[in-house]
Design brief:
Blueprint: E1 2-8, E2 14-15, E3 22-24, H1 51-60, E4 64-67, E5 91-93, E6 98-100, H2 106-116, E7 119-124, H3 131-142, H4 148-155, E8 166-169, H5 184-201, E9 206-209, H6 222-231, E10 237-244, H7 251-255, H8 257-278, E11 286-294, H9 297-306, E12 313-314, H10 325-340, E13 345-351, E14 360-362, E15 368-370, H11 374-383, E16 387-394, E17 397-400, E18 404-407, E19 409-416, E20 421-428, E21 435-440, E22 449-455, E23 475-476, E24 480-483, E25 486-491, E26 495-501
Parallel strand pairs: 1-21, 3-4, 3-13, 4-7, 6-12, 7-8, 8-9, 9-10, 10-11, 11-13
Antiparallel strand pairs: 1-16, 2-16, 5-6, 14-15, 16-19, 17-18, 19-20, 20-26, 21-25, 22-23, 22-26, 24-25
Helix pairs in contact: 3-4, 3-5, 5-6, 6-8, 8-10, 10-11
This protein binds alpha-L-arabinofuranose.
EC number: 3.2.1.55
InterPro entries: Alpha-L-AF_C (IPR010720), ASD1_cat (IPR055235), GH (IPR017853), Glyco_hydro_b (IPR013780)
Keywords: Carbohydrate metabolism, Glycosidase, Hydrolase
Length: 502
Amino acid sequence: LNASLHVETSDPIAPVHRRTFGSFVEHMGRCVYTGIYEPGHPTAGPDGFRRDVADLVRELGVSTVRYPGGNFVSGYRWEDGVGPRDQRPVRRDLAWHSIETNQFGLDEFMSWCRTLDIEPMMAVNLGTRGLAEALDLLEYCNHPSGTRLSDQRAANGHPSPHDIRMWCLGNEMDGPWQIGHLDARSYGRKAAQVARAMKMADRDLELVVCGSSGSSMPTFGTWEATVLEEAYDAVDHISLHAYYEEHDGDLASFLASAADMDGFIESVAATADAVGARLRDPKRIQLSFDEWNVWYLSRHQAEAAVHPTDDWRIAPRVIEDRYNVADAVVVGNLLISLLRHSDRVTAASQAQLANVIAPIMTEPGGPAWRQTVFHPFALTARAARGQVLRTGLTAPGHGTERHGTVPVLDAVATHDEENGTVSLFVVNRSTDEPLTLDADLRALAPVAVTDAQTLSDEDPYAANTLETPDRVVPRPAEETRLEGGRLSAVLPPVSWSVITLS
Ligand code: AHR
């Protein structure tokens, strides 16, 4: 197979937003407990944060972290997780049918973010709670001092405000599974009231209203339009969530998942703009893709139907998906889609960070390791700099069951004018044929390939495990040549690559 691409330098799409490389920590399964936090672990400091995990988070290049949920937030009382640990209540978490000890809470999360230079993205509970509690949480977090809740924060050891800029107005409120689920009109009104009051406290907050929890939701489209009709003036972003998996051995469709993400992003942007036009509001709502990943959801649902669990456990092992090469290629391709839409998607969170559908896995008391999906995320976060360029692609199409005919090649390019580097992120979606790529980069006049790495394997289902944590790692891309500003590369089937030139 042969494909070609060229880049245009005159009219970049948008800058690369650091917030594109966000992640998500929910009080779910072992994401917090025995994930990022495990007092007594050999690498944990006095704060209980696992240093081995923190090092991997740094290597992953995570910029923001959404917290504390997810479905969990819709039943959460934030006050339970602050103050002296021995006085914090143990509660039931109905979302995940678990016991929450509250030994890790808001202040621990903020300290953890600070040590890793991560920007927090805080979600408020609009399920069991509402306006008053959201305002209390905001006062506790952001008010400097001299009020009841800001003084309480200081007494809890945090005299400086947490100064959280980005806030999610609930989570997946369109989902019937959500505690306190609402119809679009009711949620839109509730979110608008909360948003307006939060902005009375601080007009510089960036607020994310809930969009659909997936493009296959029956209310998709009308949900976004109705919610924005109510809340357009008061919010800044609308959320998108999407999880992909290989269904019934259909690898070709799975590898084309980014085509679905492209369509999803473009539909939500068009819907938001249509509402803006109707309201005659010149503001453009940005998109926060604050849950995305590969998740073998249907497998978990089938298992849960056969073996329903009715116990209440602390930090149980739930949805600890083990990722393979194909999953990593899809994750790399989803990042290409997010970058390509940087004019609208200004924040994103891969869900989740540790153990729960995560790039980082841990054993309690034991090691931490990188799943296959860790690698495209880390390499993209490192190499995507400067501006996202418009890229013209010419590639053969191949038919897929779920997404119709898609090009076998997908790619995006970024250009850092300051350092004079250009990075190409490319995917070969063919399940069995290598792809020879001819990239015309003469407009950028690169002189050398400084780094070229590929993630692929003879076995697209090879995975990293506790026993073989480095079975799948990126390898130098061997057949890569640059001549007179034209780059040629041979991309193996089912592969994701990054090529940086200067
Ligand atoms: O990330 C796992 C769950 O997926 C989140 O709690 C929820 O928001 C989504 O449905």
